């Protein structure tokens, strides 16, 4: 009998708190019922590995002693994890695995983070690496930084691994402390509208935004030498230095500071089931992402603006890194059908594209189990 490891790592939604994680701020994500399903087993070869994608009917074969970046982008999510484990002195031997996803790529539901988390979870179990869940999150983040070349925060991987059914998690991205909050929406539900648009700007602009925020910190340190992250800055401090800031740097910093504040207000709104307040915060978040952080796009802006007249819609905003993907919408259940139908028609008329609609269930994070295989 040969041990075979089965893994499910979910994608995530983020209620509010966009582009705050790499600035040490707060985020409010949740794991969802869609994700990556992965099956892995040892192949008794010390070096050779095979990874097969059922969705794309493609096989990726490589040697563990020849890890180097691949021209196929999806390969690098695996290779980066292996490189980080190698740096830590963990021994991995040959394996075969196959994976399948029900997460739409480029939707803002973090299919790439789910891929990383499923893989690290599988390796941890298969080779008895002894990693705890937070260690796995941080290995995935370092892989993004060092191998993928995206200076991401930890929100996506954290939600995928640490998510809890029927809860959102408020994560402090400075010290990694976190708190779960029940997500009880009563007569409302969360509906994702996928523009099915992915813009090539996303990765390069992501790194640019991080550099702009770091520049803002450097400028603020001339007056406030004690700060190290935008998390340490309040809006009064930023406003007091506006004359010394390029306008675009000021706006990037303004978004991050106020967005972290919106997360705090959103958790209070959830505790008090003040869904109208939560919706207002979502609209404010999108406005900031559109005009101050400038990571939206015409398709996302169209959907948010066209949601406003509907009495059954309390809030809408872009979700994820930006330049495409989904809007997340807080919608009254009885209004869902007419809302989706109307926006789908308007969107197709304006852009000549179809929307995809997703209703997600907030679920547990990473699941790993073992079964015997002959």
CATH architecture of the largest domain, by name, is 2-Layer Sandwich
- Which overall shape is indicated by the principal axes computed on the Cα atoms? globular
| Total number of domains | 2
By DSSP, the count of extended strands is 13
Helix content: 25-40%
Work out the helix count.
10
- State the oligomer: single chain
Structure write-up:
With 374 residues, this protein is of the alpha+beta class. It has two domains: 2-183 and 363-373, Ribosomal Protein S5, domain 2 (2-Layer Sandwich); 188-359, Alpha-Beta Plaits, CATH 3.30.70.890. 40% of the residues lie in helices and 26% in strands. A six-stranded mixed beta sheet has the order 5-4-6-3-1-13. A four-stranded antiparallel beta sheet has the order 10-11-9-12. The protein has a three-stranded antiparallel beta sheet with strand order 2-7-8, covered by helices on one side. Strand 7 (167-172) and strand 8 (178-182) form a beta hairpin. Helix 3 packs antiparallel against helix 4 and helix 7 runs antiparallel to helix 8 (275-291). The chain is globular, with a radius of gyration of 21 Å.
């Amino acid at each position: 009998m040969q041990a075979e490891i089965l893994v499910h790592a979910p994608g995530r939604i983020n209620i509010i708190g966009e582009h705050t994680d790499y600035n040490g701020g707060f985020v409010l994500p949740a794991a969802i019922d869609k994700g990556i399903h992965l099956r892995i087993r040892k192949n008794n070869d010390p070096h050779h590995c095979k990874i097969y994608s059922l969705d794309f009917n493609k096989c990726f074969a490589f040697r563990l002693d020849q890890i180097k970046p691949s021209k196929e982008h999806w390969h690098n999510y695996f290779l980066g994890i292996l490189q980080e484990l190698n740096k830590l002195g963990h021994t991995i031997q040959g394996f075969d695995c196959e994976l399948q996803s029900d997460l739409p790529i480029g939707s803002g539901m973090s299919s790439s983070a789910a891929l990383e988390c499923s893989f690290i979870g599988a390796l941890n179990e298969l080779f008895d690496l002894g990693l705890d869940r937070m260690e796995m999150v941080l290995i995935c983040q370092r892989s993004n930084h060092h191998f993928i070349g995206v200076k991401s925060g930890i929100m996506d991987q954290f939600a995928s691994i640490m998510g809890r059914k029927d809860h959102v998690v408020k994560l402090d991205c400075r010290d990694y402390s976190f708190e779960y909050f029940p997500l009880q929406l009563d007569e409302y539900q969360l509906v994702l509208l996928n523009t099915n648009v992915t813009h090539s700007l996303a990765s390069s602009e992501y790194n640019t935004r991080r550099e702009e925020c770091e520049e803002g910190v450097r400028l603020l340190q001339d007056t406030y030498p004690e700060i190290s992250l935008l998390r340490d800055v309040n809006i009064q401090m930023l406003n007091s230095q506006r004359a010394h800031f390029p306008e675009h740097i000021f706006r990037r910093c303004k978004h991050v500071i106020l967005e972290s504040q919106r997360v705090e207000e959103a958790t209070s709104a959830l505790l008090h089931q003040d869904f109208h307040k939560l919706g207002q915060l979502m609209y404010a978040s999108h406005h900031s992402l559109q005009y101050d952080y400038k990571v939206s796009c015409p398709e996302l802006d169209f959907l948010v603006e066209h949601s406003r007249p509907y009495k059954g819609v309390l809030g809408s905003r872009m979700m994820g890194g930006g330049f495409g993907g989904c809007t997340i919408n807080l919608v009254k259940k009885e209004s869902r059908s007419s809302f989706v139908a109307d926006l789908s028609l308007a969107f197709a008329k304006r852009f000549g594209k179809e929307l995809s609609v997703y209703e997600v269930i907030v679920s547990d994070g990473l699941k790993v189990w073992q079964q015997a295989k002959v």
